[in-house]
Each structure stands twice: as structure tokens, then as C-alpha cells.
Write a structure and sequence with these properties.
With about 250 residues, the chain is an alpha/beta fold. The chain is about 40% helix and about 15% strand.
Length: about 250
């Protein structure tokens, strides 16, 4: 793998938070920039793998690595999970049940960590516990890296939205993106696409700006080789918020 390859881990300890939606759309956003992208499906549910099987060959390519599958008797797991040498960005769809050694391996290999949260009391509580455990995990403490929280499936100007925004404001990590609860995302998943692919769809075009802002935030983070505990002690700068005529663009 070339030195410029960066690995972005999308993970939360609670299932159903939209990890695959974030991971697939992020992979597409990078592929649309002309980058060589690998999407590593680490989740036993294999949702990212299903997405990749639906993706049309005339769209910007995203190479899916089926890391959730066991290697056969003639391959090592490392060989099974390999990516092409020219890969520039690796998006990892982490599984919610990752514990102990599995979680440690995911954290050690990540350059940037994204944690999606849903705006419900149960998800906020579970997400807060996961983030606390993440920040105190031995693999993270030994080599800190940027962490960003994503407010996912949000209905703007609702009580649950306000509750989630209040919670995110109390965290010691930045809220780097807010995405709306829109059927356009499930439509995209079903056909192996991302929001950035859907240029003829007005609803998708409104969301594209928010995805580009998330990519910009990731790219603004220092490479892991330069990361030290001291340099990452300061709160990273949050991504700028995109606003439409009435509400902020979220997804």
C-alpha cells in the first residue's frame, strides 16, 4: 500500500446508526474526486458488500474488500483483506460488536475515526458510552487520532434534533457533519450509489454540499505519522455547516 493511503474508520458500538450509509457515501464522495478508493466491509451483516454488488460499472469505481468473510485454507487473512497498491483512501465499515482484539486492530489501523449518532435518547446514551470507551481505549491513548461525530438521520427543528445538538455540544470531540433523515439515502443504497452519484436528483444535490464538507474536514486532519498525543489534545476544528434557504443541509 502506498504511503499516501489514509484509512477512515466508521464505527459505533450500537447497531442501526447508519454506518453503512456513511461509509458507502463517503467512499463515493472520494471516488467522484478521481481517487482510488477501497471500502472495507468489516460488518458481518455484509451491507457494504451488498451495496457494492449493486453498483453499476459505469460509475466511479469503489473496490469492496469483504473483510467480514473468513479467508480460505490457502490464503492468510492479510492476503484476503488486501487492497490495491495504488489505493489512496480506505473507508472501513466497522462492525458494532467489535470488542477486545478486533476493536484494538481497527483503532490501530485508523487515521480518522467517525462515529455516527442517531437523535434518540437510547442512541445518544449508547453513543456517549461508546465514545468514552473509545477515547480511553489503550490503542487510542497510545496513538490518538482525530475523532468526529456525525449527527445522522436528523429531522431539523425538532425536539430530538435539539437534544442531540445539546449532547454533541457537551462532548470533547467535534460534531463534523449533520445528515437529514431522507428516503434518498435508502434509494441510493438499493442501487449501489451514493448521494454524489445522483446528479439528476434535486434532493441528492442538496445533500452533496454537506458530504463535500465532511470530506474537507477529514482531509484537513494531519496524517497519522505526524500525530502525537500533544498535537491531538486540542479539540479539532469542526466542519463548516451548510445551510439551505430554511434548514441546514443534513442527511
Amino acid at each position: 500500500m502506498e504511503p499516501q493511503a489514509r484509512r477512515i474508520l466508521v464505527i459505533n458500538g450500537k447497531g442501526g446508526c447508519g454506518k453503512t450509509t456513511i461509509a458507502t457515501n463517503l467512499a463515493v464522495a472520494y471516488a467522484a474526486k478521481g481517487m482510488e478508493v477501497a471500502l472495507v466491509d468489516n460488518d458481518p451483516q455484509a451491507s457494504s458488500t451488498y451495496w457494492g454488488e449493486q453498483r453499476a460499472s459505469d460509475l466511479p469505481p469503489v473496490h469492496v474488500v469483504r473483510a467480514h468473510e473468513r479467508s480460505n485454507m490457502y490464503q492468510t487473512q492479510t492476503y484476503h483483506n488486501r487492497v490495491a497498491p495504488e489505493t489512496e483512501r480506505i473507508i472501513v465499515d466497522g462492525h458494532s460488536s467489535a470488542r477486545d482484539r478486533d476493536l484494538e486492530d481497527l483503532l490501530k489501523q485508523a487515521d480518522v475515526i467517525l462515529v455516527p449518532l442517531l437523535p434518540s435518547s437510547i442512541d445518544i446514551r449508547a453513543g456517549g458510552l461508546f465514545i468514552a470507551n473509545l477515547l480511553t481505549h489503550r490503542a487510542f491513548r497510545s496513538a490518538p487520532r482525530p475523532v468526529g461525530v456525525i449527527a445522522n438521520r436528523v429531522q431539523p427543528n425538532t425536539d430530538t434534533h435539539a437534544k442531540l445538538m445539546h449532547f454533541l455540544g457537551c462532548l470533547d470531540v467535534p460534531a463534523v457533519a449533520t445528515f437529514r433523515d431522507s428516503p434518498i439515502y435508502s434509494d441510493a443504497i438499493e442501487v449501489g450509489q451514493g448521494i454524489v452519484d445522483m446528479r439528476d436528483c434535486r434532493a441528492a444535490r442538496k445533500e452533496t454540499v454537506a458530504w463535500r464538507a465532511l470530506v474537507d474536514w477529514i482531509e484537513d486532519q494531519p496524517p497519522s505519522i505526524c500525530n502525537t498525543s500533544q498535537s491531538l489534545r486540542q479539540r479539532p476544528k469542526a466542519a463548516g455547516r451548510h445551510r439551505s434557504n430554511k434548514n441546514s443541509a443534513s442527511a
